[in-house]
Amino acid sequence: MPAPTTPAGPLIVAEISGNHNGSLPRALDIVRAVADTGASAVKIQTYTPDTITLDVDAPAFRISEGHDLWSSRTLYDLYREAHTPWEWHEPIFELARDLGLVAFSTPFDETSVEFLESLDVPLYKIASLEIVDLPLIAQVARTGKPMIVSVGTASIGEVDAAVTAARSGGCTDLTLLACTSSYPAEPDDANLLRMPAMQRMWGAKVGLSDHTLGIGVSVAATALGATVIEKHVTLSRGDGGVDAAFSLEPSELAQLVAECDAAARALGSADAWATSAESESLRLRPSLYIAADVRAGERFTPENVRSVRPSGGLPPAEIDRVLGRTAARDAATGTPVNWDLVAPADQSSASE
C-alpha cells in the first residue's frame, strides 16, 4: 500500500462519497481542499444506481422508516443522488495525483472493477456491506493490488471468509478496517478493540472506517495501531448532501491528520523511560542542599540541610545518613551536599 504522507501517522483517507452534491467542480474542490489538509489519500465510490440495486419501490428496497438521514428513501433514489458519474473518475483521479494524493475507489460489481482497472487505480476498498460478496472480493484480489476491507456488519466467520477469498485470489497486502455501518455512528458502538483482535486472528494490517462525529474515535484507533483511517469529507456540512451530516470539513480533517500523527508518534517504545527530551527536568530533580550557612564542624540538622530542587547534591534518600553528621568545611546556603562536605562518622562523633 502507498506510504502515508504524514511522518508517523496512518494513511488518512478522505472519502468524497456523495458530498459532491451532483457537481464535478465541487468534487474537484473537495480534492483540492483535502490536499491542503495534509491527508494522504482521496477515495470515491464506483457504481451507478443500476449496478448497485434495482429500480423497485417496495419495502425491501427502501431505507427503514425513522433512519436518521435517509428515512423511507428507495435505494435507487438514494444511490442515484449519491453516485459519482463514471466520466468524473478520471479528472478526479488526475487532479488528486497531481496534488500528491493517493486516489482510489470502492467498486461494487464486476463492471466497476473492470472500469477502475482501465484507470489503473493503485488499490481497492471493499465496502462493509459487500464483505459477503466473495466473488467481488476474489475479482479484486486477482488484480494483485492492495485491498482495504471494511468489516462493518460482519461476523467473525464472514470476515474469515472474506480474508480467505482475498488471499486465495492473490492479495498479499490486506488491511481490515473496523467499521460501524451506521450513519452517523456512536462512539459506544465503535468497539475499537476489534482492531488488535483482527490483527492477531488474520495477521493483517488494521485500521478504522469512522462514521462517528468528530475525530476522537479516529485518534483512539491510531493509538491502537490503525494504519488506515477513513473519514467522509465535505466542503461544508451546511451545504447539505446525503453524507454531509457525518462528514468532516477541511479544517477538521487537517486537525485529524495532525492529531493522528501525534498519537502515532506518542506510542514510542515500551523500552524508553528517561529520555534526552527530559534533560532539563532531570537537572531540576530535588537533591540535598545547604539551606543555612554552616561552619566546619557544625552538625547537620533539618534546618541547615534540606531536599530541594535542583539536582547536584546527594539523593534525598540519603538525608538520614547526613543528619547528625558534621560539616567537613564551611559551606554557604545553596551549596550542594556531597560526601566530601560531610565529615567521616568517627570525626563527627569525636566532635561531640
UniProtKB/TrEMBL annotation:
Pfam families: NeuB, SAF
Annotated protein name in UniProt: Pseudaminic acid synthase
Residues in AFP-like domain copies: 287-345
Signal peptide annotation: none
Entry-linked PROSITE patterns: AFP_LIKE (PS50844)
Listed CDD domains: SAF_NeuB_like
